[in-house]
Amino acid sequence: MARPGALLYGGGVLHRQFLDHAKAVARFAPVRPAVKAGLRAALAFFVPTVVGTALNLPGALWLAVGGFNTSFVDKGGSYHARFRAMGGTALAAAVSAVLGGLAGMHPALAIPATLLWVTAWSFAGVYGAAANLTGNIAATTFVIALGLPAGSVVNALESGAAVLVGSAWAMMLSLVLWPIRPYRPARKAVAACFDAVADYAEGLSRTVQGAREDAWQALIQEQHGRIRETLELARTTLAATRQGRVERGRGERLLVLLESADAMFMGLIALGEQLESLGPPVSGPVGDPRAAVAVALLDCANTARDLVRLVEQEGRSRRPQPEWDGRALKDAVGDLDARGLVTRLERARLTDIARLLTGMRERADVALDTACRLAGPLTETPPPARALAEESHTSLMDPVRAHLTLDSEVLRHALRVGITTTAAVYIASVFRPNHGYWVTITVLTIMQPYTGPTFLKALQRVLGTVVGGLLAIAVASWLQNPHAMMGLLFCTAALCVSLIPLNYGLFTIFATLTFVLLAEMGSGDWTLAPVRIVNTLIGGALALAGTFFLWQRSEEQRFPAQLADALRADREFFDVLSRGWKQGGTPDATALAEARRKLGLATINAETSFQRLLNEPRWRTEAVEPLMTLLAFTRRFAAVCTLLASRPSVPSTSGVQEALSRFARAMDASMEDLADAVHHGRPPKPLPAFDALIGWNVPTPDAAGAAMGAEAPLLQSQLERLVRQLTVLHTAATRRLEALPTASSQAQPSTINGP
Question: Residue limits of the Integral membrane protein YccS N-terminal domain (predicted)?
Fold first, then answer.
């Protein structure tokens, strides 16, 4: 039996988590409403509705369903990608409407048909986010058709044809009547990369001018993951835009600009890491050289803002002429050195910062030249750039085979959704509630692959439905004029889609208001709002039950593996560096770029998993601080590696090479052991004496360590910085294990796996 104190502790944890979820329900995303998308969706929905009603067409509902769902798929991107996504969704929804209508005619087939069809389309997530959205729409259309069975085979075929017609109208509206510039999404995505680079440069400028010591860490946490996500989004958008196109001018120049933004980001990471190592300000008759760095960084940010303008606007523009580089800092360092005001190591660090600034200016010049020629024809060979990673032509069945295991989150989610939706269909067939398909639609809408997002969406869906239902009751009590009602519904339909980016709960409020009033107009029954609320509550309860009891895997189980992957990506990044040093002092640029990108994505995955862990309702709780430290210093380790990668070379003497070789072997073994310890929840092995390996702060270093200190003091200092990041990671991993028994004992009983 649990102790009273433990129960109070557990109750306090649950109470705090519930408050956190309540805040998340009301949290607004810092974006603008998607007004254009809302108006398109309203037109795609209401034009078929009005036409079908006016002409008394039997498939008016399906015209509206096809138009609304297909417009919902249009998430922007290249013209080709949008057409493919919308067309594929239209076909899937039409087939689902036909099969659902036929299955509804034979109740004995409804249950197995639902299980197979919904599970199969939920499994479509193996092909990516777009396929997952298409699968959800196909499954939703199927259960609507199941709840509104066709009277005959001909009627079922008419439903499918009506879905296609409504979808065709939505596609014409989005792709023809409101034409787009094919490269506009790619230009905006690349411009967003330079905008993020400018923000980072401004942050570095503020921090280098005497900000608090912890400001460096805050800047890394705030900027690195966001910029990497922005770069990856631009890479995906540009790849989709160029797919199937033969023109070389604008697409290749955008590729060069994307790679320039990535290179500037890497240069800023290296600069930040080297600036942090300077320590207290260096003052003297010639002033603090860090002031010159701060000014150069602000000028760099202004240049990045110029690039945002040049990339976004159409037509040719005059090229800006930046006046910043590393020469002013180099001159200041020379004066300080001549006066004996800096040590040898400080001089090396400041000189390296000047080199990094000069490299940043060179990358900015390439980007400016390319951006000013963005709209013109390609008359010369563009500057060299790393090619976009194109999707390999793998077999269509390869992703399916890869996920046919219960270890696959996609398969587990598909089975959960299929079984829970089938249960909803069975309940509707037994109790026959009014508009029973609202129960199954709620299940399909709420259920997400992870527990935390499912719980949050359930709260938003239920609360939004209650509020929307009450609004529908109020509206129906005083407004029943069909023409005025149609005008109001057009506005609410536009609002519900426009507000999706801000808050899903707001979308649910206006979606409930729209569809309840529309159903009441069609049936003449003005009391459907309570039905919608009750059906949503039933669907929400089923969705949560299915999530919690059907192959649910807590984020506490997933997060250690994600964090271990990020640590191993750190290890691989350093391994590329060390192999390059052994082979002549210069790492392979292609391998380095790939390792850096892999590290960025792995770290983002770990941070996303950690956020899901915080939002997941749990009986047990783990100390958060060690986990946050592990995540933070995984990025810090990567930042030092980026600084090391910016070095033009390392000394090739035997002493330095021997010190580097044994340091690399020890670092590789320590990082692998740390990743394995985090993954399996065991204490990491003690760290070796890294200082002795490179001769740092050792009274009597051996020959290799002495060579390192004499021939490469800056490299020695940077390696020592890497050791410090590893030491913090090692300490956090040990502290996490020390905190686990206390948390577990306080949160008893802990025999329940999940909430």
Answer: 89-247
> DSSP state, 176?
I
Tell me which residue range forms the domain holding 480. Answer: 410-552
Q: How far apart are CA 609 and CA 510, in angstroms?
A: 31
3-state helix, strand, coil in the chain (%, to 5): 75, 0, 25
Whether residue 144 is found in the same domain as residue 65: yes
What's the pLDDT tens digit per position in 305-336? Answer: 989 888 887 656 677 888 887 777 777 777 77
Q: Is 385 a domain residue?
A: no
Answer whether 74's CB lies under 8 Å from 497's CB: no
Among residues 644, 649, 659, the alpha carbon closest in space to that of 725 is found at 644
- Write b or e for each residue in 176-199: b if 16 or more Cβ atoms lie within 10 A of its Cβ, otherwise e: eeeeeebbebbbbbbbbbbbbbbb
Pair 56, 100 in one domain? yes
Asked if 231 and 87 sit in the same domain, the reply is no
Of residues 321, 323, 345, the one with CA closest to residue 333 = 345
Q: What is the pLDDT of residues 250-297, one digit of tens each?
A: 677 787 788 888 888 888 888 888 887 776 554 444 456 777 888 888
Distances (CA, A) of 641 to 273, 353, 461, 645, 721: 10, 16, 45, 6, 10
Burial class of residue 1 (count of CB atoms within 10 Å of its CB; 0-12, 13-18, 19+):
exposed
Q: How many structural domains comprise the chain? A: 4
With contact defined as beta carbons under 8 Å apart, do 635 and 220 qualify?
Answer: yes
